[in-house]
Design goal:
Elements lengths: L5 H4 L16 E2 L11 H9 L14 H11 L6 E4 L2 H12 L5 E6 L4 H9 L2 E6 L11 H4 L4 E5 L11 H10 L3 E5 L13 H4 L3 E6 L12 E4 L2 H10 L7 H11 L2 H24 L3 E2 L6 E5 L4 H10 L2 E2 L1 E2 L8 E5 L3 H16 L2
Parallel strand pairs: 1-11, 3-4, 3-5, 5-6, 6-7
Antiparallel strand pairs: 2-8, 7-8, 9-10, 10-13, 12-13
Bound molecules: pyridoxal-5'-phosphate.
């Protein structure tokens, strides 16, 4: 007997990247930041009065929204916070897509998007990226009558940035809500935040998990006009961001220079590694993120396995169009030097 809703019982669910416990692996598989969070975060945690935990957290994460409003030049009322940006994506589905209605999402992209459609009992509407893993100018046509169109810019797992004119064409022509997932934006050269003031149907989401080195905290934000935020606020769990997350995220926002310096170091290591991998004959997609998507010479599934045996854990997706690639998170320079030596030896094997 299966008691779950039919939409749930027939799907496998999302499978997150491995979080190995107690194994001596160099973890390059879930795009975490190799550097610790800001020292201001450490101080906020030390100063936190544990006795306050008997109270509920402030329901709207006001403190974080006000700090973010100052940093990003928007109004606090244009922000909703979530338990990671994944929480905000779930809220998006529940707010904008009814059962049997369509969710459009780019492909290949973050593999959570189609799973969110399944969980909601919605219909999947994939929008194919072109051969350069970019948006075509008329990509919006493929989204047709969907209620919500989600894409990541920069994209994951390819690392490519999406053409901004094509993004604008989506904002202008698509009739539903356009959700731009900017999880990796701090590693890229530009962003789409200002589009929330230009278009009434645009949402931009960000996370503290990557550039702010706070994946374990679970904290994300979405920016949009106040009318969209108002509707999403009805859907979110009342206390979806806990007290500690609010204090820590605020401390992180008060030290943008620290985050930006780490992002710059990661970009430098990324660009160095991309050039080195190209020298050994691997095809590397241009990356605007904290990872590289690398087409290996030997079968990627084998290279993935052999890298793991050599203690380097990367990510492999056995999915159409990307099964010949591995995704490599950028760690500290010394780890990536070790990685380069190892993959050079592995990919040269007959
Ligand atoms: C494109 C994209 N969006 C969102 C997320 C999830 O971020 P969070 O940790 O904020 O839930 C990820 C995580 O890997 C991602 O790759």
């Amino acid at each position: 007997m299966n008691y779950a809703r039919e939409a749930i019982s027939r799907i496998a669910g999302y499978v997150p990247g491995e979080q190995p416990q107690g194994q001596p692996l160099i973890k390059l598989n879930t795009n975490e930041n190799p550097y610790p969070p800001s020292p201001k975060v450490a101080k906020a945690l030390r100063d936190f009065d544990w006795q306050r935990l008997r109270l509920y957290s402030e329901p709207s994460a006001k403190m974080v929204r006000e700090a973010a409003a100052g940093v990003y030049g928007v109004k606090a009322g244009q922000i909703i916070c979530g338990n990671g940006s994944d929480d905000l994506l779930t809220i998006a589905l529940r707010t904008f897509v009814g059962e049997g209605e369509k969710l459009a999402y780019t492909e290949p992209s973050y593999s959570l998007y189609p799973v969110l459609a399944d969980l909601q009992g919605a219909v999947r509407q994939p929008v194919a990226l072109n051969d350069s893993f970019d948006l075509d100018q008329d990509a919006w046509k493929q989204a047709a009558d969907a209620k919500l169109f989600i894409f990541a810019r920069p994209n994951a797992p390819t690392g490519t940035n999406l053409d901004k004119t094509a993004v604008r064409a989506i904002c202008e022509n698509f009739k539903g809500v356009v959700w731009i997932d900017e999880a990796y934006v701090d590693f890229s050269g530009d962003n789409c935040l200002s589009l929330i003031d230009e278009y009434p149907n645009v949402v931009v989401s960000r996370t503290f998990s990557k550039s702010f080195s706070l994946a374990g905290l679970r904290m994300g934000m979405a920016f949009a006009n106040e009318a969209l935020i108002y509707e999403m606020n009805k859907v979110k769990d009342s206390y979806n961001v806990d007290m500690i997350s609010q204090i820590v995220a605020t401390a992180a926002l008060n030290d943008m220079a620290y985050m930006q310096a780490n992002a710059a170091r990661i970009r430098d290591t990324r660009d160095w590694l991309a050039a080195e991998l190209a020298k050994i004959g691997c095809k590397v997609l241009p990356s605007s993120t904290n990872f590289l998507f690398v087409e290996t010479k030997r079968p990627a599934a084998k290279v993935f396995q052999e890298l793991k045996e050599a203690r380097y854990l990367v990510r492999y997706f056995n999915l159409p169009r990307i099964s010949q690639y591995i995704r490599v998170t950028i760690g500290k320079r010394e780890d990536m030097e070790g990685f380069l030596k190892t993959i050079t030896a592995i990919d040269a094997r007959g």
